[in-house]
Amino acid sequence: MNSHLVPIATTEGTFTARFSATGLAGLEFPKAAPIPRRAHRSPQPDANLNPHRAPLPAPLARWRAVTARALAEALAGKAPQELPPLDLSVGTAFERRVWAALAGIPWGRTRTYGQIAAAIGRPRAARAVGRACGANPIPVLIPCHRVLGAGGRLGGFSAGLEWKRRLLAREKLPAAPAKM
DNA sequence: CCCTAGCGGTGCT
DNA sequence: AGCACCGCTAGGG
After folding, report:
1. Whole-number distance in Å between A44 CA and B8 C1'
2. Which of A144, A167, A168, A173 is labelled catalytic?
3. Residue A133 catalytic?
């Protein structure tokens, strides 16, 4: 898998972006501490983070900058102005349709799993939509956190509900603890 | 709140 | 083909 892992430091910790030849292919939440922690030795930049020694895509530096800015904006509670090209070639056809629908949810708005299901023409596949959301390789920028359960329930989140709550709060969205 | 039945996509056997 | 997962949902206590 020709891809480059690139750490992206934010106020919420260091994310890891994965870039393929065609764009941002993955984004991982900070591993342990939400608060960036200084290691004993100063962390090496991205020098050794390419497990496959793939040739460096020429636009990578720009993609990284765009990604870092978009992520910073998202975490600061602002709608990202520009996203890097997204490489969503990995998923199934169904998952890609779900992800495309997620990408269309405006900043500061939410949908339910059922609404996404209906939007992609599979009105009874709400549960499968939830599963596909969990497979979203680029959380935050592909806003799977804006998908809630029916009646405003929080629903689930692969990276932990704490993140979902936090991301929703950044967009001034009701934490929706109301269990109907 | 709980429980149940029904649902669809995915991956493993 | 079968089956066991699941970020679901509607309906009934």
Report:
1. 45
2. A144
3. no
For residue A91, give the nucleotide whose C1' atom is nearest its CA. Answer: B10
Rounded to whole angstroms, the Cα distance separating A85 from A143 reads 15
A24-78: per-residue pLDDT in tens?
999 999 987 544 433 443 444 444 455 555 677 889 999 999 999 999 999 999 9
Q: Which pair of structure tokens corresponds to residue A53?
A: 């020694």
**Given 1.20.58.2140, 3.40.50.2000, 1.10.132.30, 1.10.10.10, which CATH number is that of A93-170?**
1.10.10.10
Residue A22: DSSP 8-state:
S
pTM, 2 dp = 0.88
Cα–Cα distance, A85 to A20 (Å, whole number): 10
